[in-house]
Amino acid sequence: MNQYVAFLRGINVSGYHKVPMIELREEMHKLNFKNVATILNSGNVIFDSINNDLKNLEKTISEHLEKVFGFLFRQS
């Protein structure tokens, strides 16, 4: 199992794209990620995954969160 950090940009900034961290953690768990933790209210997420294809992880996370929260998630 590999540990990753997702830097989700543009959320919870000046009242735009509000995402409660508890909901973000729940959605990451739905993607079968383990040991999910968020850092403050920043949108930075630490998680474990057996997937080692970074492009696939980025696509999976972005598409799922966009569908759930209704806006495009940019990652760095």
Q: TL;DR?
A:
By secondary structure, the protein is α+β, with helices and mostly antiparallel strands. The chain contains 2 helices and 4 strands; from the N terminus they run βαββαβ. The chain has a 4-stranded antiparallel β-sheet with strand order 2-3-1-4, covered by helices on one side.
Features:
76 residues, alpha+beta, Alpha-Beta Plaits, 4-stranded antiparallel sheet, 2 helices, 29% strand
Structural account:
The protein has a single domain, classed as Alpha-Beta Plaits (2-Layer Sandwich), CATH 3.30.70.1280. By secondary structure, the protein is of the alpha+beta class. The longest helix is centred in the last third of the chain and has 16 residues, at 54-69. It has a 4-stranded antiparallel sheet with strand order 2-3-1-4, with helices on one face. It has helices at residues 21-30, 54-69; strands at 2-9, 34-39, 44-49, 74-75. A hairpin with a 4-residue loop joins strand 2 and strand 3.
Spell out the blueprint of helices and strands.
Elements: E1 2-9, H1 21-30, E2 34-39, E3 44-49, H2 54-69, E4 74-75
